[in-house]
Amino acid sequence: MLAYIVRRLWQIIPTLLGVILLIFFLFNVVGGDPAYLLAGKISNPEQIANIRKQLGIDEPYYVQLWIFVKQVVTFDFGSSWSTNEAVSSIFATRLPASLMIGIPLLILETVIAVVIALGVAYLRGSFTDRAAMITCTVAQSVSILVYIIIFQYVLAYKFGWFPVQGWGNGFFENLFKFAALPILIALVVSLAPNIRLYRTFLLDETNQDYVRTARAKGLSENRVMFVHVLRNASIPIITNLMIQLPGLLVGLFLIERFFSVPGIGREVILAVERSDFPVIKAITVYVALATMLANLAADLLYKAVDPRVELK
Amino acid sequence: MKTWPTWHSGVTALASIASIAMATLMVGCGDQSPKSAKQDASGALASTATSPVQSVDGKKVVRNVFVAGESGFDPPTAHDLYSSIVVDGIFDTLLTYDYLAEPARLVPKIVTEMPVAEENGTLYTVKLKKGVYFSPHEVFGGKKRELVAQDVVYSMMRHFDDSIKPVWRFLIDGKIVGMNAWYDAGKKAGKLDWDAKIPGLEVVDSHTLKIKLTKPDFNMGYVMAHPAMGIVAREVIEKYPNDAQSHPVGSSAYYLKEWTRGQKMVLERNPYWRGGTWDFKPSGKDPHDEVIVKQMQGKPLALIDRVEIYVIEEEQTRWLSFKDKQIDLMNIPGGVTPQALPGGKLAADLIAEGIRLQKMVDPEYTYMYFQWNDPIWGGTETHKVALRRAVAMAIDRDEEITVIRKGQAIRADFLVPPGVVGAKEDFVSSIQYNPKLANALLDKFGYKKGADGYRTTPDGKPLTFKYTSQSTALEREFDELYRKNMEAIGIRYEAEKEKFADSLKREKRCQIQTRGAAWIADYPDGDNFVQLLYSKNIGESNNGCYKSAVFDKLYEQSTLLPAGAERDKLYMEMQKQFEADTPWVMGVTRLRNQVIRPWVIGYKKHPVLLAEWMYYDVNMSKGK
């Protein structure tokens, strides 16, 4: 097991190098020159050149690339070119807000989707199953923007159940007051596809011989579904869950923007718009790392859930 | 100030459309809250309404909104409007603007009297008020730190510190005797000498400064009032060598109490605020000025204790926050305008809530330039002038105003926009929308139509109107309009899309054929606009790279004159030359519609001042 983990961790290095090269290439080819944005309204070539020097983008490519590699190794990406705020500070101050929405959302959507999926899988072909699937299909077809706009207008503005926007200073104030509606909207949006997906995973299992055998042995339906079927369906569910984990690092841009949540999603979009390379570099590297680590964690969880899985 | 394009991803563009749809519903369903205020005969509010903020300590709070995030609050580096607003509230400048005067008029802020242009506009003597103190900061060692003349000198010198990436250097670049030489010497030495004496900035005593200019400049007063010239304390800047923008310490009415980047800023009154009395006269142009004077005359300045600023980027969220009484005043978002202002008047449900509308014309205009170096579109040959003029006559600005701007703009005809010194508001350009005449002009100068219905150049080359812009919802609307207008005169239209940074880069190199731009006054004087066509500003602000010896000569003459009839005459000559060459198609001047809650009293959006907090008041309910 340890050898497997070490081997997988080693594999991160070449992958990360590939990511570094790709980001560097994309930034220099299509990224736009930030010096022109930072120079203000009236600037001359000398001032532009000065800014390029300050940013280090007048250096030869190999020097810039080496600096990038050093930044990845030290996890010090410097400061934002646009606001001069340290990139580490951007993550430290924005990530908590994104996670406050993202983590409860991930937990709630997984638990609720699995429970509903179990129910409809058990009732496969019934009116309830069909109604649930039609509802999911319709719900999935509606843009998240429509949910945001309607929920914000109706639940926050008209009914006053939630604040229209905002963010406070206290953990519980944020979680139960300001994050509640964003979580609810994101939950409504994400439930439909997850229910359909998990239902498929569960149906694959309910058709297996071991389920028929379990029933023949007289096990209760609850035991068959919650213990045997769910356990065997948990591998694809874990995979799906792990795929979503790195997404926590990039936040929910639209939700954050509409509800004025000071999260990382908004910063990422702003960084792209402003050609703010230090922030872009950091977020891309962090997401790449998180993806690789989540994949590793998923593989280890497979083994924990199903001892027959071999890690090679 | 250049209006940077609103950044939209495709998704946010969709959001805008959806928001507009919801806005219809929102206003249609508008809250019919009981009236909280009565209207007086002039339509102004004799308000008894109080803010819903429950201020426990009795502090007066006003809640503002920014539509985009700020970047930082160091005067020489604040490059976006929203940072500049906060900078204006925190830092003192030598001069400021009369709160009500129209057109905008300079008045002293921390000087005892208005500096007079001496020696033919090359010398200004500035006498600072005594008792102007920076807000408290640990670097002052617990003592009150007075603002002195050397602070003004240091603050000006900082515009030449490349390490902080200053963006407002152009305001004083090459203007102050010895300043550029000091900069060049510092560059050569690899370090600027902050203790050096600049010959053009003579500190006579702790409260007197003589500013000597390299040539006559009658606009120096406007520079002295610009927020970028906010005065800092050297000790504070040196304490935060790489991050002064996060630690603003000024001497004006407010200081930065809290800051959650991109989300919320809280300013509170400077404990060492010098005070002052509200004393302004009605402009005579706006009837509401009388009401404001009645409400505010003789009161102390900076009555508001706390200014809360929220960054709310989405139109729907902003509007709902205002309707939900979380925001006290704001600009009506574009998408909501048709419903909030049916027929140009405030909607009945908003009036019922005691909300007041203030309409104003921004000191700005939009324009579309032709590349003067382009072999087909630029130059002074008669057929090229005819081509540009034909395009200018084919662009339907009235449709732009009605459809794209939703009625919230007026045509711009003169090189100096309304509300700016030197403007000629009744001027009508000789170039008006007339596609029939445009076609005739093109026919006459040999731009023949081919079998496909599109014209070619007189020597038979393909003719395409290539318009560069960004991929935003607004720009797509312009593409539709311009395509229609160009096809009406048989010219092929091509929309070229690229990142804004790339456009700026190519523009500075005179490589863009045609692009739309906007210019908002840095200072309310015609000079700030006519300089856009001066050939020595190519690569800087003359983004069409227009070159005309006649125009240049007129411009240079105008810079030597103070505002007045003689200079206005030169501006008219420049306008004639401009129309003769047609290097631009003039666009529109946009209107601003502010809605103000009834508990905000004495408020008026100033066309140039960025932070008006010290000039108005808020009726507060009693705290619990």
Write up this protein.
The complex is a heterodimer of chains A (about 300) and B (about 625). Chain A has about 300 residues and is mostly helical. Helix content of chain A is about 75%, strand content about 0%. Chain A starts with a helix and ends in a 7-residue tail after the last helix. The model of chain A has no long low-confidence stretch (mean pLDDT about 90). Chain B has 18 helices and 23 strands. Chain B has a 5-stranded mixed β-sheet with strand order 18-17-19-15-20. Chain B has a 4-stranded mixed β-sheet with strand order 3-12-11-10, covered by helices on one side. In chain B, strand 1 and strand 2 (about 45) form a beta hairpin. Chain B is globular and about 80 Å long.
Quick synopsis:
Chain A is an all-alpha fold and 312 residues long.
**Considering DSSP H and I runs of 4 or more, what fraction of the residues of chain A is helical?**
over 70%
Most extensive chain contact?
A: A-B, 51 and 57 residues
Structural class of chain A: mainly alpha
Helix content of chain B: 25-40%
User: What's the average pLDDT of chain A?
Assistant: 90
Cα shape of chain B: globular
What's the topology here?
The complex is a heterodimer of chains A (312) and B (624).
Chain A: H1 2-30, H2 34-38, H3 45-55, H4 61-74, H5 87-122, H6 127-141, H7 144-158, H8 171-178, H9 180-206, H10 209-216, H11 221-244, H12 253-258, H13 264-273, H14 277-305
Helix pairs in contact in A: 1-14, 5-9, 5-11, 6-9, 7-9, 9-11, 11-14, 13-14
Chain B: H1 10-28, E1 37-39, E2 45-47, E3 61-66, H2 81-90, E4 95-97, E5 106-108, E6 117-118, E7 123-127, H3 149-157, H4 179-189, E8 201-205, E9 208-212, H5 220-224, H6 234-239, E10 254-260, E11 264-269, H7 288-296, E12 306-311, H8 315-323, E13 329-331, H9 337-340, H10 348-352, E14 356-361, E15 364-370, H11 382-394, H12 397-404, E16 409-411, H13 435-444, E17 464-469, H14 473-487, E18 492-497, H15 500-508, E19 514-520, H16 527-530, H17 549-559, H18 565-581, E20 584-586, E21 588-596, E22 600-601, E23 617-618
Parallel strand pairs in B: 3-12, 17-18, 17-19
Antiparallel strand pairs in B: 1-2, 4-5, 6-7, 7-9, 8-9, 10-11, 11-12, 13-21, 14-21, 15-19, 15-20, 16-21, 22-23
Helix pairs in contact in B: 11-13, 17-18
